[in-house]
Amino acid sequence: MAVPMAEAYIVEAVRTPVGRRGGGLSGVHPADLGAHALTELMARSGVDPAAVEDVIFGCVDAVGPQAGDIARTCWLAAGLPEEVPGVTVDRQCGSSQQALHFAAQAVLSGTADLVVAGGVQNMSQIPIAYASRGAVEPLGLTEGPYAGSRGWNARYGGQEVSQFRGAEMIAQQWDISRADMEVFAYESHRRAIRAIDEGRFEREIAPLAGVSADEGPRRDTSPEKMAGLKALQDGGRLTAAVSSQISDGAAALLVASEAAVRAHGLRPRARVHHLSARGEDPIRMLSAPIPATAYALKKAGMAIGEIDVVEINEAFASVVLAWLKETGADPARVNPNGGAIALGHPLGATGARLMTTLLHELERTGGRYGLQTMCEGGGQANVTIIERL
């Protein structure tokens, strides 16, 4: 007798607005940022918080106010039941997408029925990835994570490891010009502004600290302004205009088994159809979404044309443009409401933010399948495919 396959359902998803650096959320403690998303998630779901079996949050560079297992401190800061544990994940920019994977895997394995996944990051207070490396310099520890006689960078001839270098390498290898990237970046702002003006994000956002909409999109930007910016590196093609914004925010999702759906009277909004992660060249670093997407589609038995909405993180315009060239995806279906160039990239929260937006966009448009992917430090990428129900 065949055993029916277990399913993992997304039953609720919510996020804070994404605040720009020094903006309306910059003074909010990271634990309070995450607590706000969790409080709203529990209220919207109607589930008894004590029934949650684990809280899995993504956060990059868990130092200072983000230290001490931020998943746990966010839950407690929200005043939620102390018997519910929490754990923090760091897979660089994909941290909260990986948190969703771990939550879904717990449900699919049958070891849990109700798990919260999400992420939080206040980049105004802790500026950018690798901040944890600098935090130990007063102790005399100055070597980076890739150093040492057996450090993995030794395999690559001691080459510079930098997201900026990786994005430049992609632009050169895939013959993506600065003008190409500026056209893409301008469209990201245009799409994001349209989405805000049409109220597309209102259902997914829980206003906080007087902020009710994403602060990143620039209504006053133009191709001419972008063309006037200085390159980030001498002789390079990248500028701030074609890069993701430093941001603050949090997001949370509730993942449930079939048993939990029945027991708590929940309405499944999407089924987790596929989840995987792959690695690639750690020096080029940001191109891993290309092989990861190919791997995921093959494993799922799908073609890119079957995907109705794609959310791929706009760490840099070159990342998405190279991915588009390799996958042949329809650009109209990719980041239809703008991406991190316009909306911002609060590192550890971005994966959960993208999934929250993806779910709501599938519901808005009536699409069936959505795919999410993002580049990550160390040359990695997660891919999640969901089916709207």
H/E element order: EEHEHEHEHHHHEHEHEHHHEE
Q: Which ranges are low-confidence, i.e. pLDDT below 50, for 5 or more consecutive residues?
A: none
Largest sheet: number of strands, sense, barrel closure: 10 strands, mixed
Number of helical elements: 12
Rg over CA atoms, rounded to whole Å, is: 20 Å
Average pLDDT metric: 94
**End-to-end C-alpha gap:** 27 Å
Structural class: alpha/beta
Protein name: Acetyl-CoA C-acetyltransferase
InterPro entries: Thiolase, Thiolase-like, Thiolase_C, Thiolase_CS, Thiolase_N
Domain Thiolase C-terminal: 267-388
Keywords: Acyltransferase, Transferase
Strands, helices and their partners?
Blueprint lengths: L8 E7 L3 E2 L9 H16 L8 E5 L11 H8 L8 E4 L5 H15 L4 E9 L8 H5 L27 H11 L4 H20 L25 H5 L19 E10 L1 H7 L5 E10 L9 H12 L8 E4 L4 H11 L12 H4 L3 H19 L3 E8 L3 E9 L1
Parallel strand pairs: 3-4, 3-5, 8-9
Antiparallel strand pairs: 1-6, 1-7, 2-6, 5-6, 7-10, 9-10
Plain-language structure description:
By secondary structure, the protein is of the alpha/beta class. Helix content is 34%, strand content 17%. The chain is built from twelve helices and ten strands. The protein has helices at residues 30-45, 70-77, 95-109, 131-135, 163-173, 178-197, 223-227, 258-264, 289-300, 317-327, 340-343, 347-365; strands spanning 9-15, 19-20, 54-58, 86-89, 114-122, 247-256, 270-279, 309-312, 369-376, 380-388. Strands 1, 2, 3, 4, 5, 6, 7, 8, 9 and 10 form a ten-stranded mixed beta sheet that branches. Strand 3, helix 2 (70-77) and strand 4 form a beta-alpha-beta unit. The longest helix is centred in the middle third of the chain and has 20 residues, at 178-197. The mean pLDDT is 94.
